[in-house]
Amino acid sequence: STQSTWGVLMVLEFTAVELCAVGLVTLSLLYRYSAKSVPLYIKAVVYITWLLCFSIVALIPLDVYLTSQVGEQGQDFISLRTVWYSMYWVTFSMTWVVLPIAQEVEDAGDFTQKARIKRSLKNLSLIHI
Fold first, then answer.
1. Is the dihedral of CA 57, 62, 65, 69 positive or negative?
2. Dihedral of the CA atoms 33, 38, 44, 45 (nearest 10)?
3. Which of 6, 14, 71, 102 is 20 to 30 A away from residue 46, measured at CA?
4. pLDDT per residue over 85-114, tens digit each?
5. 103: Cβ–Cβ under 8 A, 6 or more apart, which residues?
6. Which residues contact 102 (CB under 8 A, 6 or more apart)?
7. How many angstroms separate the most distant Cα atoms in the chain?
8. What is the DSSP secondary structure assignment for residue 98, as one 8-state letter?
9. Which pLDDT tens digit goes with each residue over 57-85?
10. How far apart are CA 98 and CA 116, in angstroms?
């Protein structure tokens, strides 16, 4: 039991280091490949989306380890399942709702932010209907 607890702690530490590295790499990619004229809120949305997608690589070893150790019974598997579901639905909503609206807001030629949002929602409704 002590050896199993030690193994879980090592895998959790490794996953934490991986997630920090993924965050820094994502930040450096965003800094390198985004234009300076892109607004900060667009960069933040893209960062969150990329971070969620790239963090899958960091969470797979933890998932495999917990599944092999806990098997069919465990509580750890249920909490990791919640993480996977959350990542899926946040990524899904960012891809199909938030990012298209943000892109249309930036492309709209209206003068006020309210008019840009209104135009983007109108354009997206024409595309999806």
1. negative
2. -90
3. 14
4. 999 999 999 888 888 988 888 888 888 989
5. 120
6. 41, 42, 45
7. 64
8. I
9. 888 888 888 777 766 555 655 678 888 89
10. 14
The four Cα atoms 90, 94, 96, 97 give a dihedral, to 10 degrees, of 110
Q: What is the pTM of this model?
A: 0.74
Q: Which of 9, 94, 119 is nearest to 44 (CA)?
A: 94
Q: Which amino acid is at 106?
A: E
Q: What is the residue whose two structure tokens read 């920090």? A: 20
Q: Is the dihedral of CA 69, 20, 45, 54 positive or negative?
A: negative
In one letter, which amino acid is 17?
Answer: V
Amino acid symbol at 122: K
d(C-alpha 3, C-alpha 10), whole Å: 11
Contact 26, 51 (CB under 8 A): yes
